[in-house]
Design brief:
Layout (H helix, E strand, L loop, with lengths): L3 H15 L4 E6 L12 H5 L4 E7 L2 E6 L3 E6 L4 E7 L16 E7 L3 E7 L5 E6 L23 H8 L6 H6 L9 H11 L12 H20 L41 E6 L2 E6 L5
Antiparallel strand pairs: 1-6, 2-3, 3-4, 4-8, 5-7, 6-7, 9-10
Helix pairs in contact: 1-6, 3-6, 5-6
The structure holds a DNA duplex (16 and 16 nucleotides).
Length: about 280
DNA sequence: ATGTGTTCCTGTCCGC
DNA sequence: TGCGGACAGGAACACA
């Protein structure tokens, strides 16, 4: 489900219920998500205070006292739902189905956090905070959009010599992290670059514009609280609204939204995933 | 090393 | 309504 803007929106929704609060009770309702959960998972969470809730790419990172960090990845269908809390401080937005509620955290202050994930492509792990960058899921991640390490020069260096469609390259989390199918499609349209163009064949100037388009797309999506497809909701039950701003994603057959273009949005399959683009203004 | 296809899992939607 | 197939916001993995 979630790409960087959605994960960051979830993080912001969870922060008031989790930061500075102790996990009073943790419940693990199945042994595994995508991978087995760590040994004694619930015991290691119980009684720990959340010092800080952070994010790296599509991972939520909860630094706990005692020196461990809880790593959470939402996969395609994962959600972190908040309910309860005193004095209406937190919205009652559970919306979970019980059946796919895999991990439950009862927080000091009365909030309940439910990790719900029907498809179970999500993951959780515990890892020493001091060496968080060495975790196997995090160690090879490239810079994120809007960070100092991400710019046209970096992107040009990483795309150089690549004989793969630029669409596939931008989905590669080692090149730039946090993007997924939606925002790659959106950024490529914004930059006027076809998803089918070979990564290594794009001029440095156009790659510079692509890096700017990626940053602008992510910044706009963050400001809108991410995108709500189907019934996806933020942690507090609110809907993001960036989906109303989609230029191409999920708009097959509709007209291109670029000023004066007049083209029609097409959908093509690339490495098993849908790419949406306008053949008139994306080259 | 790099590129591509498969796989994990469940739910929903669309056409017959 | 039921049924089959396509498809879904991810990404590790096996293999060429």
């Amino acid at each position: 489900m979630p790409e960087l803007p959605e994960v960051e929106t979830v993080r912001r929704g969870l922060a008031p219920a989790m930061e500075g609060r102790t996990i009073l009770r943790a419940e693990q309702r199945r042994p595994d998500l995508r991978w087995p959960l760590p040994k004694r998972f619930a015991e290691r969470l119980t009684g720990r205070r959340v010092l800080r809730l952070g994010r790296r790419a599509k991972y939520i990172l909860a630094d706990l006292d005692g020196g461990e960090t809880l790593i959470v990845h939402l996969g395609m269908s994962g959600r972190m739902l908040v309910s309860g809390g005193m004095l209406g401080e937190f919205v009652h937005a559970h919306g979970g189905d019980g059946k796919h509620d895999h991990v439950i955290l009862d927080m000091e202050g009365g909030a309940r956090i439910v990790f719900n994930d029907a498809r179970r492509f999500g993951a959780m792990d515990l890892w020493p905070s001091e060496r968080i960058g060495e975790h196997w899921l995090l160690k090879d991640l490239g810079p994120e959009p809007l960070s100092n390490g991400f710019n046209g020069d970096w992107l040009a260096a990483r795309l150089s010599g690549r004989f793969t469609p630029v669409k596939a390259a931008l989905l590669d989390q080692k090149i730039v992290s946090g993007l997924g199918n939606i925002y790659v499609c959106e950024a490529l349209h914004r930059a006027g670059i076809s998803p089918k163009r070979m990564a290594g064949s794009i001029s440095a100037a156009r790659i510079g514009r692509l890096a700017e388009a990626i940053n602008a797309t992510i910044a706009d999506a963050l400001a809108a609280g991410g995108s709500s497809l189907r019934d996806y909701r933020q942690a507090d039950g609110e809907l993001g609204y960036f989906q109303h701003s989609f230029l191409v994603y999920d708009r097959e057959g509709e007209s291109c939204r670029r000023e004066g273009c007049g083209g029609t949005v097409r959908r093509v399959a690339q490495s098993g995933r849908s790419s949406f683009y306008c053949a008139s203004c994306q080259r």
